[in-house]
Structure formats: C-alpha cells, structure tokens
TrEMBL record:
Coiled coil: none annotated. Residues 1-249 form the EAL domain. This is Bifunctional diguanylate cyclase/phosphodiesterase. It comes from Xanthobacter dioxanivorans. It comes from the Bacteria.
Amino acid sequence: RTLEGDLRRAITANEFVLLFQPRCDARTLELLGVEALIRWDHPQLGRLVPDDFVPLAEKSGLVIPLGEWVLRKACDTISRLPALNVSVNVSVVQFRGGELVATVASALKATDLPAHRLELEITESVLIENTEKALDILARLKDLGVRLSMDDFGTGYSSLGYLRTFPFDALKIDRRFVGDLDHSKGALAIVQAILGLGRALGLQVVAEGVETQSQLEHLKADCCDEVQGFYLGRPMTEEALHAFIAERQ
Ligand code: G
Ligand code: G
Ligand code: MN
Ligand code: NA
C-alpha cells in the first residue's frame, strides 16, 4: 500500500474533514467569516494535516478532485450560515488544469452561495509560474464575483509587484511576522509597513496566527482589518462552528 493509493481512495471513502477557523473584525471581534482548512482522517495513520498530504496530492494530480471537494463542501457549509464569508486555499496545481473557474462557478451554483461570500486564498507560486495565464484566470474569477486574497504575504520575494498587477481584494500577513510582534521591533516594522501598503492600495489586510491579546493590540493600533488565530478561535468542525456562533449571540 502507498499513501498515494490511500489518497486516491480517500475521497470516495469520505475520509477528509473540513475545519473552519474564525476570521474576526480586528476592532469589534465580530465574526466575519472562516477559513476552510482540510484534514485527512487516515484509517491507520490518524488525523493528517495538509503538510502531510497536500504536496503528494499536488504531485499526483489528486489535488484537482480534492480541491473540488473542498470548494463544494466549504460553499455548502457556509451557504447555510447567514452572512458568514468563507475563504478557501487554492493550490498552484488547480491553476494549471484550466478547470478552476468552472469548478468555482459550479460550486457556487450548486450551493446557492452568493459569489461575494467566497474568497480564494492564493500564494505567490501561482503568480510566478505562469503570469499571463494566472492573470487571465484571476480576471475570470473576479468576473464571477468572488474575492481574491494573497496568502502568506511577506514571505515571498516579489509580492509587491504582484499586488499592483493582480486583482486582489485582500492580503493575509503571514503568521511568522505576527508571532514575533511582541518581542521583535523588526517584525512590528514589517507588519506596520504591510498595513500601510494595504491601506494605500485599497486592500483589506488580514493578520494570521494571532495568539495573544498584545498581538491583537498592536494590530488594532495600526488599523488591521481582520484577525485570525488561536486567540480568536482554533480551526473547528462545522458543529463546533455552530456552537461558536450561538455562544456569541
Ligand atoms: O491546516 P493548517 O492549519 O495546518 O494549514 C497548513 C497549510 O495547508 C496552510 O498553509 C494552507 O494554505 C494549506 N491548506 C489547508 N487547507 C487546504 C486546502 O483545502 N487546500 C489546499 N490546497 N491547501 C490547504
Ligand atoms: O493558509 P495558511 O498557510 O496560512 O494556513 C493557516 C495555518 O495556520 C493552518 O495550519 C492553521 O491551523 C494555522 N494556524 C491558525 N492559527 C494559528 C495560530 O494562532 N498559531 C499558529 N501557530 N498556527 C495557526
Ligand atoms: Mn490560507
Ligand atoms: Na497564510
């Protein structure tokens, strides 16, 4: 048996789980949306995180059907929760196949989720690989009405130019910078610079990996729009998300 064989069977065997992590208004802490995060409950190996199997899914092409499942599941779950937005991570491999736009359109149609409530999180690798093609796909995704965000912002090397060239609505500050906010002047300077850049370009800025009150205070002081991280809530099941929402009402 191989992990790839297991992966091939896992979709039909229903072994994947989609968790949802809160994204909150930085000032009011109101719940605005969730990021969908996949897990694999492997029958022998237990619960696997994306680092354990997404690279293999990308190499084998299985990330295409897997990505379809994630989009459908995320849209379906959130369509039943009034006013909540959902963001979904999209792999560079999903951009190669050429079916991404159709896959997103059919997930929205099948679940009746208004397009503006779906955000696709994209990493820089998508833009580096084939800039022309990526630009075309992103433009067609924007035409559908979905939001686009640049994920892991600050960790790449040419992100600044991309922000101008590509039709992003938001950028997500990588949790490495947020995690160092309390004890590193350098990290604070970088976060402040990203927030200033986002503001100047009219982009919404989301900070990831917020774990402490004091990190939150730094981010609020510099007008960060949204915060995500263990301080606000861990990735949770759909049932736990319902309880999380009920508790806040
Ligand atoms: O889930 P975790 O909290 O461990 O996320 C680790 C990484 O896995 C994140 O950077 C995220 O971008 C990626 N990831 C999580 N869920 C998905 C998914 O559904 N599809 C893809 N392609 N990547 C995902
Ligand atoms: O898409 P991305 O790579 O950014 O995925 C988010 C990842 O960060 C997921 O693996 C998620 O479980 C993880 N994560 C979310 N909040 C926190 C946090 O507050 N601290 C840490 N260390 N990891 C977090
Ligand atoms: Mn992400
Ligand atoms: Na990220």
